[in-house]
Amino acid sequence: MTSLFGLSGKVAIVTGGSRGIGYMIAAGLVANGVKVYITARKAAACDAAAAELSEHGECISIPGDMSTPEGIDAFVAAVTAQEDQIDILVNNAGAAWGAPLGEFPAIGFDKVMDINVKAPFMLTQALLPQLKASGTAEDPARVVMIGSIDGIRVPHGDNYSYSASKAAIHMMTRHMAAHLVGEHILLNSIAPGPFPSKMMAYMLEDEERSEFVHSSNPRKRIGTAQDIAGAVIFLSSRAGAYTTGTVIPVDGGVSTL
């Protein structure tokens, strides 16, 4: 199992790692011996999350705003000052916006597309030298994009820019994967379903809405930290070394309905 799924000694970056799915992923990697850098816009929350995770391994906080070129440049400079190579990059940071059709504002597209689509592309591009330095034919570097089942199926809500951005992430993953596989860099997307997170808080904090979320899922529950961390560990380990350009739903079967 260690040879198949072991990640000890690797270096990873998890954007949006201070809470929600990003925190779950970072925790799973840290627990498996990975040195993890997390970033988030709110410095205090990022530092606090890294302190918590450091009780179980090595986690370093580098707060930053991934929605701006300046924020990406500063983050990359800080990481590359300490690391010559990056083994795993998890592009998880994201934003959502909801408004009725006919009232949806332009800023609701600009903000969401900048954070959810442009930032993962630009960050991955900026870290290509470090990813290439890590990747070999036997053990390629890995990039995991966090998409969503809302990029696969039509959502129930009015989050038009969010669903468009996640569909874009899935396609961008395939496109980049085709170009980078020869450089020993593998790219895959995970499309999570409902997980406990800030984005899902509106649905989960209300008893009636929470019951609907659980009962409408084929597995009759929402996702756990083990569910999302396990998928990332698979894609980042020897077990996932022959997998690239894929979109893997981790949703309890919601996307099959």
In short:
Helices cover 44% and strands 14% of the residues. It contains ten helices and seven strands.
Notes on the structure:
- The chain is of the alpha/beta class and 257 residues long.
- It has a single domain, classed as 3-Layer(aba) Sandwich (Rossmann fold).
- The protein is built from 10 helices and 7 strands.
- The protein has helices at residues 2-5, 20-31, 43-53, 69-80, 106-126, 128-134, 160-180, 201-204, 207-215, 225-236; strands at 11-15, 35-39, 59-61, 88-91, 141-146, 185-192, 247-250.
- A 7-stranded parallel beta sheet has the order 3-2-1-4-5-6-7, sandwiched between helices.
- It is globular.
- The mean pLDDT is 95.
**Level-2 CATH architecture:** 3-Layer(aba) Sandwich
Task: Report the uncertain regions.
Answer: none
Mean pLDDT: 95
The CATH superfamily is identified as NAD(P)-binding Rossmann-like Domain
CATH class: Alpha Beta
| Helix and strand composition category | alpha/beta
- How much of the sequence lies in strands comes to 5-15%
Using the alpha-carbon principal axes, give the shape.
globular
- Side-by-side strand order of the widest sheet: 3-2-1-4-5-6-7
Our Rg estimate from Cα atoms comes to 17 Å
